[in-house]
C-alpha cells in the first residue's frame, strides 16, 4: 500500500513538472512570437520612414520641374498672353507675345528695355472681313495701344503688322511711327504689296531705336517672301516727303500703285529719255521696290523673270 502511495506521488510529481515545463515553453514561444511581431512592426515603420524620406526627397525635384520654363519655342524669352485690344502702352522686357488675330501666329519680341525689336511670322494671312469681327473702319479694334510717343502730332499708332494683314492692336504690335510714312510712305506701300499678293511668308521685322530710353523707333527693316521672291524693305522712321525734298528728289505716293497714269508720262522718272525706266531711276524718283504688275510704271520696266514684279 505504501508503495502504491509512493508511486502515485511520483506520478503526480512527474505530471506537475511536465505541466510546468509546457507552460514555460509556451511562455517562451509566446515571447518569441511577440518579439517577432515587434520586429515586423519596426520593419514596417522603417519602410514607411524610408518611403516618407523618399517622398520628401522627391518633392524638390518635382518643384524644380514645375518651375522650368514652358516656352521651348523661343528660349530666353518669357511667353505671355496679352489681349489684342489692350490699350496699355506698357511692354514687359524680354518677352514674346502672339500678336496675330484669331488663330494666326505672329510673334513679337521685346528686349531688356521693353522695346519692341522683332516680329516674325511663318505666314501672313490677310484679314477676312466676311468671317471675322471686323469693324466698319476695317479694323479689329476701335483704338490702338498708347505706346509712349504716340501722343505726338506727327506720329501715328503704327502697326508693325497691319489689321488688314491680321495683326492686333496691343503694345506688342504698335510703335510710334511717322504719320506720312505710315499712311503714304514705305510702310503703307509694303502693306499694300502684301495684300495684293494675297499674303506673304517668312515675314520678319527688325526695329531699331536710337537709344534704350525711347519707344520711338529710328528705323525698320522688313524681310518677307512673295511668290518665291525674297523682298527686303528698309526705311527710317521719318517723313519721306521731307527726306525727298532735302535730297532734291520728287516723291510720288507709294500707295498710288492702284492709280494709273493715263497719259503714260514718265518724263519725270525716265531721266535719260529712252522710254524705259530702270530700277535706279524709279528709286531716285522716290518709288519703293518692288514695282508690281498693277503699278503704272510696270509697263515701262524690265521684268526679266516675268513674275509680275520688278526690283524684288
From TrEMBL:
Residues 155-224 form the Type VII secretion system protein EssD-like domain. Residues 28-72, 241-274 are annotated as: Disordered. Transmembrane segments: none annotated. InterPro entries: DNA/RNA_non-sp_Endonuclease_sf, Endonuclea_NS_2. Residues 1-26 form the signal peptide. Residues 263-274 have a biased composition (Polar residues). Pfam families: Endonuclea_NS_2. Gene3D superfamilies: Extracellular Endonuclease, subunit A (3.40.570.10). Residues 249-262 have a biased composition (Low complexity). Keywords: Signal. This is Type VII secretion system protein EssD-like domain-containing protein. It comes from Mesobacillus selenatarsenatis.
Amino acid at each position: 500500500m505504501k508503495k502504491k502511495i509512493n508511486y502515485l506521488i511520483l506520478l503526480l510529481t512527474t505530471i506537475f513538472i511536465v505541466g510546468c515545463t509546457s507552460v514555460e515553453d509556451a511562455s517562451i514561444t509566446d515571447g518569441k512570437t511577440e518579439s517577432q511581431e515587434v520586429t515586423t512592426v519596426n520593419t514596417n515603420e522603417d519602410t514607411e520612414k524610408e518611403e516618407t524620406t523618399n517622398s520628401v526627397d522627391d518633392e524638390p525635384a518635382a518643384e524644380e520641374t514645375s518651375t522650368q520654363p514652358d516656352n521651348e519655342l523661343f528660349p530666353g524669352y518669357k511667353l505671355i498672353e496679352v489681349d489684342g485690344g489692350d490699350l496699355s502702352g506698357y511692354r514687359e522686357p524680354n518677352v514674346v507675345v502672339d500678336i496675330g488675330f484669331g488663330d494666326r501666329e505672329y510673334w513679337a519680341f521685346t528686349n531688356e528695355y521693353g522695346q519692341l525689336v522683332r516680329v516674325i511670322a511663318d505666314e501672313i494671312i490677310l484679314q477676312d472681313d466676311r468671317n471675322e469681327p471686323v469693324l466698319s473702319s476695317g479694323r479689329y479694334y476701335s483704338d490702338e495701344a498708347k505706346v509712349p510717343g504716340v501722343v505726338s502730332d506727327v506720329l501715328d499708332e503704327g502697326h508693325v503688322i497691319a489689321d488688314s494683314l491680321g495683326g492686333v492692336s496691343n503694345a506688342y504690335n504698335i510703335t510710334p511711327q511717322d504719320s506720312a510714312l505710315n499712311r503714304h510712305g514705305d510702310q503703307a506701300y509694303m502693306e499694300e504689296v502684301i495684300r495684293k499678293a494675297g499674303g506673304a511668308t517668312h515675314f520678319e521685322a527688325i526695329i531699331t531705336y536710337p537709344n534704350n530710353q525711347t519707344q520711338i523707333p529710328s528705323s525698320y527693316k522688313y524681310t518677307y517672301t512673295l511668290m518665291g521672291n525674297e523682298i527686303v524693305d528698309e526705311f527710317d522712321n521719318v517723313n519721306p516727303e521731307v527726306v525727298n525734298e532735302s535730297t532734291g528728289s520728287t516723291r510720288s505716293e507709294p500707295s498710288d500703285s492702284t492709280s494709273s497714269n493715263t497719259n503714260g508720262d514718265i518724263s519725270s522718272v525716265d531721266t535719260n529719255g529712252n522710254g524705259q525706266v530702270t530700277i535706279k531711276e524709279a528709286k531716285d524718283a522716290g518709288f519703293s521696290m518692288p514695282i508690281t504688275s498693277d503699278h503704272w510704271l510696270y509697263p515701262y520696266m524690265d521684268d526679266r523673270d516675268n513674275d509680275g514684279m520688278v526690283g524684288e
